[in-house]
Design brief:
alpha/beta; 50% helix; single chain; 10 helices; disordered N terminus; 5-stranded parallel beta sheet
């Protein structure tokens, strides 16, 4: 009788913990904001804190507000900087470093994921600039014990040229195929954790 009681309690506990949804937070600019993350991750509690047009400095300025909006997330996915690059402002690393430092300090129990910048399809941005910044973002992730997720590699061919159908007509924002690729990579990452 006692054995059955404890088995029942153990089963109820395991069912309760298996129904608790992991909390995913996406932070960034329009690429993040326009993603339908809630639909792509129905088994998770999703918070989308993307803001269209935001720069790295804009995100740095609102970091305290972000801190009050989210409490103990399981995963924080960060992608920002393309608005800086698009306007020729390449010196984003000091501000980016501060954002990652803040996130990893505030959310010690969370997995903070620095995501690579995505390519753009336009002559006004050199692929070398984006590759160089992505290398620096990888180092920032390492420096603060965050994870680095290279989404960029999914969007380019062997020559570093953006793949057809991944970006919208403006060459910056994502087409559905691009969001599919990004979400698939995030799902792969989550399955490994």
């Amino acid at each position: 009788m006692i054995s059955t009681f404890y088995t029942t309690i153990k089963f109820q506990r395991s069912q309760r913990t298996s129904t608790i949804k992991k909390n995913l937070v996406f932070i960034g600019d329009s690429l993040t904001e326009w993603g339908d993350w809630e639909q792509r991750f129905p088994g998770y509690q999703v918070t989308n804190l993307g803001i269209s047009g935001e720069t790295v400095e804009g995100l740095l300025a609102r970091r305290e507000r972000i801190r009050t909006q989210i409490d103990n997330p399981d995963f924080v996915f960060l992608m920002t900087g393309i608005n800086n690059i698009a306007t020729g402002q390449y010196d984003i690393i000091p501000s980016y470093r501060e954002i990652v430092r803040n996130l990893t300090t505030w959310y010690k129990q969370s997995t903070v994921v620095v995501q690579s910048l995505l390519p753009v399809d336009g002559k006004w941005v050199s692929k070398i600039v984006i590759q160089d910044i992505n290398s620096q973002l990888k180092e920032i992730a390492r420096e603060f014990n965050a994870e680095y997720l290279d989404v960029h590699k999914l969007f380019v061919d062997a020559q570093g040229i953006p793949k057809k159908g991944y970006l919208s007509d403006d060459g910056v924002h994502l087409a559905e195929k691009g969001y599919d690729a990004w979400a698939s990579e995030v799902k792969r990452f989550l399955l490994e954790k």
